Amino acid sequence: MSRVERIFPQAATLKSGVAASLPHDSAGRHVTGEAVYIDDMPEPEGMVHVYVGLSERAHARLVDVDLSRVRSAPGVLAVFTAADIPGDNDVSPQHLHDEPLLATDRVEFAGQPVFIVAAGTRLEARAAVRLAAITYDDLPPVLDIDAAKATGKLVTTPMTLARGDAAAALAAAPRRISARLQIGGQEHFYLESQIAYAVPGEEDDVTVYSSTQNPTEVQHMVSVTLGVPAHAVTIEVRRMGGGFGGKETQCSAFACYAALVAKRLKRAAKIRPDRDDDMVMTGKRHDFTMDYDLGFDDDGRIQGVDMTFAAKCGWSADLSGPVTDRALFHADNCYFYPAVRAVSEPLKTNTVSNTAFRGFGGPQGIVGAERLIEEIAYATGLDALDVRKRNFYGKAGRDVTPYHQTVRDNIALELVEKLERDCDYRARRAAIRAANAGSPIIKRGIALTPVKFGISFTLTSSNQAGALLLVYTDGSVQINHGGTEMGQGLYVKVAQVVAEVLQIDISRIKITATTTGKVPNTSPTAASSGADLNGKAAEAAALTIKERLTRFVAEKWSVREDEVIFLPNRIRIGQQEVPFADVVKQAYLARVQLSATGFYKTPKIHWDRKAGRGRPFYYFAYGAACTEVAVDTLTGEYRIERVDILHDCGRSLNPILDIGQIEGAYVQGAGWLTTEELWWDGKGRLRTHAPSTYKIPACSDRPRIFNVALYDGQNREESIFRSKAVGEPPLPLGVSALHAISDAVASVADYRHCPRLDAPATPERVLDTVDRMRAAAAKA
Amino acid sequence: MRPYIRFLFGYDLQEISHIAPTMTVLDWLRLTKRHLGTKEGCNEGDCGACTVVVVRPDQGRLIYRAVNACIQLVGSLDGSQLLTVEHLKEDDGTLHAVQAAMVEQHGSQCGFCTPGFVMSLFAFSKLSGPSPTDQAIDDALSGNLCRCTGYAPIVRAARRACASVTSDRFDRNAAATLARLEALQDEATVQVGDSSGIFHAPATADALAEILVASPQATIVAGSTDVGLWITKQMRDLPVLVWIGRVRELRALDDSGAAIEIGAGVTYSDAREVLALHYPDLGELIRRLASTPIRNAGTIGGNIANGSPIGDASPSLMALGATLHLRRGGERRSMALADFFLAYGKQDRRPGEFVERITVPKPTRADRFRVYKISKRFDQDISAVLGAFWLRLDGDCITDVRLAFGGMAATPKRAAAAEQALRGRTFDAAAVAAAKTALTDDFSPLTDMRASAGYRLRSAQNLIERLHLELTHPDIETRLVGDKALAHVQG
To answer: For residue A468, what are the β-bridge partners?
Structure first.
């Protein structure tokens, strides 16, 4: 019998459970350089470096691929082409066979992988690929959305959402506007480039350390391309140096190259592309155009909307189907459309295959919705914020989305009105307008925009997760789950969940690298789902352990199960308190199983894509941002001066990490819509392929006044401890920056014309818009 | 001749004789030493994940400078102390104040950029004082990109660290470190290399001249902020490198009374203060033309000698009427800077010749100088257009004028027609309009990823308008960044 202890050194309440603002679990290792990324792992004797040779043409038949000089280059051990792939030459995530791992007879974008080289050093491998002599027979490339529309070629099946009779509503509307919006793409610019490192095992076995958000899919791709069963392939990732969606599918090819070389040469093999090659080779956020036809009344209420979202998908489908779907799912943002038709056009172009990027099409949909609001504001002379409020989802009759899901958790109005008060929006707007009248060059602008973001994978089967919880006899715990850590703090959040359930300090919980060998068939860490899904799976595993221990304790100490209470680091058993570790030890001796799996699948969701009906989202996350900018009307340059954000994380699992996600997402979203411009030349070559030419926000671009608060509330649904997902929803808060610039630009024409400022609003585009506004004012 | 380079790696003396002349500090750290805390993000000095700190003795003090390890050459460490993120912790494991602040303020998410930020903050903490301005923090971090945090918590960490830094292990060891580093300084010409080539590091101008006469095809390297990319991106063979960073005469920055004499090896960081004193806008331009780590390595002489059409220094100094001094062996010649640029990528520099110094005349009371940089992003971005404007005024009348632009032609170039339109005229709206029109005769810019031809021309024209407003209407706000008062200083 264990000794009775009534006084414990531990705190009376657990300080590391849910809702605690714990630091990132790796913070101490990040700041000392001790956190190990894949390129930092020990390199075994004989390890080879792999590099990939790329197409220089956007669209061509491969007439001759002469690699003789590559083969004889210093240090080169092997050169492989498509012919050397033992399995299926396809890394299409949708299994459409439209994305060969290595090109065979033709290339479809400048940067497409054609061959790989293995050499003793990375420098030798990089130098060798430049010696390839490829003869091309050029074909006409399709490089932009208009050209692609002309060909009509799609990479996947389009989707239509419709509710009500949009055509009739438009015809009957008192006012009607139709125009086009352009939205640029975005490079992920994860600081750690793509990387994979493969270690061959016996027979078919191979272990690949991959910087991936999607270990299961990488496992699948390696197994398919090698032609071996999935059980022979293990994928592991402890952490990524950033992902943002760029390592959901784009990581697969690199893992396959490393695995192929490792198996063929029977040596460890590593591939890490140089930054420029990474940016040329890997997909980005989709560019879109939205053609819209909008009907509304004199009070600014929308009557009907018809919108076509055409996306530049690149040469293959990749995830373009679900990305363009999600654009449509967010084309309403917070607004009720009485009659609506929204259509996607996933267009094929001879450019890199665009992919997942934080928000996954959703932000583009929201930019589209906010353009509609802006049109109405300028047409009616109303404050855009009032137009927004008048069109928010409301009570029955005004609460159904274009995909026929009823919005039951709407807090947009309360949240926006609180932010409006807290940031003094009305008074500041009036002051800005007065000041602009006296400032001929520098004009200021302000905008307050909301976000409603749907949470769940729209591919319903992806909404599942597993976890493995191991309790050791000293009471220490390992937790493993399918989620991957890319900086968002998923690991610590899931550990907090386990700490909360078992009431043990987080220091007793080891967070282990994500590996397909521990939890199989996992979903990508994407769609903001990481904590929702894996937290629930871990909770289930922890509850199983807790139940087993409870049952064991009740039996052994002869108390009722409801007399067994888990207190911080101890268990109250009737009138006694026993340390958790002691109970565990006793349970082991009594042959109680101390490991458990957990599983979770999101309830209530269903989706019929063909019909455009269902409940694709378990719930919605909300937020709003108010941005103030200053614009130089001589050069088009601008600066974000102040931002106020109120965001809904439900009952946050970790408020400080959630605030970090919001701050980062805002700046990333604002960067997308302002300085981040992807630029291809006339031959289809990306010319912004390094940070010297592609400009993500720098430190001085952050708003000097940057107020972020969490909305006080909880998830209406039974999510993990009633929290809400936070990865993607705050990204479209950056839309307020675009609209604030637009507001400043509108001042040059006395706010009488809608600037229709497209994105990215580079200084050049802003100056163009200023000039256009001045011309419109002069004509009027 | 000294056949090895020597420097302190932390506190360990390194003496290296056999090394590829193009070996970067980052590759040396990661591949040779397996010190893996320093990360490679972009391999071109733009993201800062590889930031390390180089410490040099200067007049009895230690100067801590953040630089980009990815484009610094190992040879250029000669005589310095190299500190990386691994060196900051105390021996008992206590985090350095900047590290502790980054943890406390949640300044890391994915963590990949973090070692670089830590090193930039570490260098900053050595000179910031306890309560730096936002501008100072932004400048210190201008060379570090973070894609996760939006920078807000990192700036909070910077404030916290600066407020809490007391004496760290480096301060406690400063006297000993200084003595060791001073002992490493000598007048010998250093020569190291391997089968791939030779790295020369002369200590005097005469030795440099001699080497270049003997090897006229040698690549001269100063801060390697450009040559570094020839190595990392173009993978060029550079069998003979001559590093001028040790050449005493070229590091001189002198005031000759009527002019500032800038040695070819003077970095932007070293030149900024004195140039800003006489030309506040030039100081502001130097703040913006590159990040702190790049300014700590890059030189004005190198920017001129490489003749980039998009370099910011050349048009600015052309507008100021700078003179360039070249030397080959014992032969010297001088020319107006504007005459140095012959065509795209072609300068009037003969084999074996090197830039010795640049003479920048000081302003008279009648002179006005403004320089405006337009780029997509304010910090660490290459200009779409750079406009530099020098006017000599007699009352409202422009008695003399030099306008020079970058990004508008194949070389940095004066705007002769626009100058003509202004010279001898009253600086009024009509003169502005005439100069704007004349600019279309001066330039037919190109369209590229930075801007279209149309935008370049239009914004260049508008800069003349900004110039006019700033000189005539001090009440009007014209600038978004930098010290707003700069728009209205005289001079």
So the answer is: A480, A597
**Nearest chain A Cα distance for residue B162, angstroms:** 16
Measured between CA atoms, the residue of chain B closest to residue A273 is B42
Interface pTM (ipTM) of the complex? 0.97
Q: Which of residues 187-226 of A touch B (CB under 8 A)?
A: 188-193
Tokens 């792999």, residue?
A50
The distance in angstroms from the start CA to the end CA of chain A is: 92
* Beta carbons within 10 angstroms of residue A3's beta carbon: 8
- A85 secondary structure, DSSP code: -
Over residues A473-526, the pLDDT tens digits come to: 999 999 999 999 999 999 999 999 999 999 999 999 998 999 999 999 999 999
Would the pTM of this model clear 0.95, i.e. be above it? Answer: yes
For A596-628, b/e burial (b = at least 16 CB within 10 A) is bebebebeebebebeebbbbbbbbbbbbbbbbb
The DSSP line for B362-375 is: PPPTTEEEEEEEE-
Q: Report whether A155 contacts A347 (CB < 8 A).
A: yes
Decide if A241 and B235 are in contact by the 8 Å CB cutoff: no
Residue pair A648/A622 in contact by the 8 Å Cβ criterion: yes
* Residue to substitute from B39, B105, B137, B148, interface A, most A β-carbons within 10 A: B148
Distance from CA of B330 to the nearest CA of A (A): 39
CA of A436 vs chain B CAs: smallest distance (Å): 11
Distance of alpha carbon B155 from alpha carbon B380, whole angstroms: 18
Q: What percent of chain B has pLDDT over 70?
A: 100
Question: Which residue in B413, B412, B434, B410 sits closest to B423, CA to CA?
Answer: B434
Amino acid identity, position A447: A
Rounded-to-integer distance, Cα A447 and Cα A428, Å: 10
**What is chain A's mean pLDDT, rounded?**
97
- pLDDT at residue B490, as a whole number: 65
d(CA A681, nearest CA chain B) in Å: 8
Environment class of A240 (CB within 10 Å of its CB; exposed 0-12, middle 13-18, buried 19+):
buried
Mutate to test the interface with B, among A40, A272, A635, A770 (most CBs of B within 10 A): A635
> Which residue from A31, A441, A677 is facing B108, i.e. has the nearest CB?
A31
Kindly report the number of other CB atoms within 10 A of residue B345's CB atom: 12
| Confidence (pLDDT) at B95 | 97
What residues contact residue B433 under an 8 Å CB cut-off, 6+ apart?
Answer: none
Residues from chain A contacting residue B36 (CB–CB below 8 Å): 33, 36, 39-40
Residue B468 and residue B462: Cα distance in Å, rounded?
10
A210, A218 contact by CB (below 8 A): yes
Residues of A annotated as catalytic (active site), given as ranges: 728
Of B106, B112, B459, the CB nearest to A635: B459
Q: How confident is the model at residue B491 (pLDDT cuts 50, 70, 90)?
A: low
A688 touches chain B (CB under 8 A): yes
Please state, rounded to an integer, the average pLDDT across all residues of chain B: 96
CB A92 within 8 A of CB A318: yes
Residue type, A563: E
**pLDDT at A10 exceeding the cut of 80:** no
Backbone angles phi, psi at A8, to 5 degrees: -120, 150
Instruction: Count CB neighbours of A356 within 10 A.
Output: 32
- Tell me the two tokens of residue B445: 């810019």
SS (H, E, C) A291-344: EEEEEECCCCCEEEEEEEEEEEEECCCCCHHHHHHHHHHCCCCCECCCCEEEEE
Closest CA to B376 of B310, B446, B451: B451
Q: Give the residue from chain A lying closest to B229, CA to CA.
A: A692
The pLDDT confidence band at residue B487, using thresholds 50, 70 and 90, is confident
